[in-house]
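JOB MANIFEST
job_type = single_chain_structure
chain_count = 1
residues = 382
[input]
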Amino acid sequence: MKAECGASENPGGKPRFPQSIAIAGAWGYIGRKFLDAALALGLRTYVYDPGPAPADLAAERAIRIAAEESFYQLQADLFHLALHPEHRRRGLAILLERSRAEPIVILCEKPMAAPEHPEECGRIIDAADRARAVVLYDFPELYDPLTRRIREHLARFRDVRIESIHLQRSKDREDPAQRRNYKRMVTIQYQESVHCLAFALYTLAGLRGGDPEALFADGLSVAAASEPYCPPNPEAYPRVVDGRCEFRLALAGATIEGRTDFKRGAPWAKRRILRGTADGRPFVIEVDYLEGCKRLTIDGEEQAIDPAADSYAAVIETLGDWRAAASARELMTGLYPNPRFARLTYQLSSALWRSSRERKPIALASLEALQCFDAGFAAAIR
């Protein structure tokens, strides 16, 4: 008997997760990517977005919910908040309050909070601790099977030391011919550099007991420089935001160098290069997560992967795998993109922005120093 749409099963006979998804902000760039991925996966899909539906979306393919209150009361396996931070705050608060009585799984877009409101990160963590929710943040590369391949390869060795990580994430975000470029963004350290920082933290912590906070035991240093973004719709921006950032961090014995670039003519790239030693022998791992051009090489040997694999479907599927393999508590306390992990990426984004603004390196002796530094940050960015 053929399974109903969205009711497929794992080989062991257990229904796959999720079978349904509710997407807030479904007509936005990221929301639409997840909408298309969910429909391709055969999920029962609910959407909430007050704007006009895309002309190329058949009305019967997704269930549109007109009222916000009704949307956040849906019995959906997974809620995805594809919203700007200021709009996401309300939806997340509603779901976290609801989840004090019932378990809910929530996928949030980054950054964790608006750049000028770092205090919101602590509030989210406190609210999540009081709830029965699983809250994970959408850093797509952490969910990508390519990342799992890298971790599985390094796990074969007894002693792995990463000496350097090169991070490049860029695209032309100033071209007025691209409709996507009219979507308002926050400053690039939070919009794009945060993905690079998340990858570095996730990779390093995976080799050091799985605790990203432990990476800061010996402190860190940050040096960054930036250039302003020139949007095609400057009237949408109350203040100038950065559109390019180059940075260098020293953390947990590794040098982390990155370039995030939204300026005119920037190449499309989501490249990572890891260099180090494994059981005393040098290694080089190169990976590109760019949709349609994905690739992975290990010590110069090209690995068999699908260059066109859907990154957004991978987020949904990997989240389902994690939920099947780990308890809610493990997902909220272990090495997953949960609120505590997301706060670290937010705090490092703050450090990049501050170093760029002050045009000087920043040295912080501990995680506590980073947290205190972040607490005094709001006034500077406002």
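[summary]
The first strand starts at residue 20 and ends at 24.
The chain has two domains: 20-138, 141-307+336-381.
exit_status = 0
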